[in-house]
Amino acid sequence: MSAAVTSPPPFDDPAGTWNRRFSASGYLFGTEPNSWLRGHADVWQAGQRVLSVADGEGRNSVWLAQRGLTVDAFDISEVGMRKARDFARTAGVKVNFAVADIATLAWPENMYDGVAAIFIQFADPALRERIFGGMVQCLKPGGTLVLQGYTQRQLEYRTGGPPIESHLYTPELLREAFAELEVIELREYEATLDEGTGHRGHSALIGMIARKPA
User: Please, what are the domains in the chain?
Assistant: First the structure.
């Protein structure tokens, strides 16, 4: 008798997992920008350079480019980046897209006026520490991070995000991880999301705005 074949956990094959998810018709997380990002993007001015981390199908990077920002964006998924390029072309904006594995990314130093990190909770604690350190490293002095994620209470709602407690955020975790930055706003709250089929329903959220000292 042959052993049963089981699918690997979603984070064991991140490129394959996200390629499959983004291969579905439409846009998994919709085409509108994340609401926390929309509400706080005025921390950056037109002409400044912003990095959109794990950008998926481009909803956030394209919107930032429409605001006159110079936007670099990357994702591990070739399918997601292809759809993002099509989306940017349709929207009539330029975004510098790249396919890249965040686990092996060589983060530049002092390059960006801003970093957008929206629901990047695919990372286990060890990888998350490297990612957060890289985001701090790539910010210019005076640059600003806009971050949103789910809190551990999201495990009760299961309306998006990973069902893995160690991947979720707390205020204490974020303050410690970004101790080098000046926290401008850190808010834990609940709201109903309507971001495609990927983030839909009542959700336990946390948002942070933090600036690298000049």
Answer: 14-211 (3.40.50.150)
